[in-house]
Amino acid sequence: MLNRYRKTMRTVVARSLVALPVRDKFRIRLIAGVGFAGFPEARAALEHFLEGTGADRSVDISELFRQEPNVGAAVCLGVRKGIRQDTCRGVVAVPQWAYRSSNWMYALGAIRVRWRRVGDRVDVSFRDRYSWTPDEERLTQGLHQSAHRLLAQGAREYDHVGPRHRLSVDEVLAMDPPDRVRAEKMYCM
User: Which pLDDT value is given to residue 33?
Assistant: First the structure.
């Protein structure tokens, strides 16, 4: 119950902050500090954007899979489907709503994970752009509009890079999502 209350309060705070008539950079920093409190990956991703270097930001895929078991399982389901069709490589689309926590959802958003089978191993990796879509209607549209305007003031989009992570084929075949019905509906199209 307490977690639900905290999540509701974060949503209320984030909505309120987006509606404030304040300068874009201040608004974004306020959201990073208050709205993303407790979301270290999301906060770090936003701060990296604001630094304006445009340099790639590395993501530890094993840590992502550990913290987001549905993401790891979804990737394994997609790979498993490919292996069963005698495919040696492919791409698994992981939609933004697949994440169980807002931390990784806000940090990465939707990603496309590439995989390649090499003998009894499967290599997975991804490269995904951290960008803003100001014209897309959504709850956080004001945030996206503010962040997009910051591009003219020195903020820079960049790529999240999940360097190669090696799994055994046995791991891929054995991994089961915590919510199997939902995962199969999402990823095994």
Answer: 60
pTM for this structure? 0.76
Measured at the CA of 24, the angle between CA 23 and CA 25, to 5 degrees, comes to 100
> For the residues of 95-129, what is the DSSP string, one character each?
-GGG-SSHHHHHHH-SEEEEEEEETTEEEEEEEEE
- Answer whether 147's CB lies under 8 Å from 155's CB: yes
In the chain, % of residues over pLDDT 70: 74
CA distances in angstroms from 10 to 50, 73, 86, 102, 175, listed in the order given? 21, 28, 46, 10, 32
Residue at 164: amino acid letter:
R
In this structure, are residues 13 and 34 in contact, taking their beta carbons and an 8 Å threshold? yes
Name the amino acid, one letter, at 82.
G
Q: How would you classify the pairing of strands 57-58 and 158-168?
A: parallel
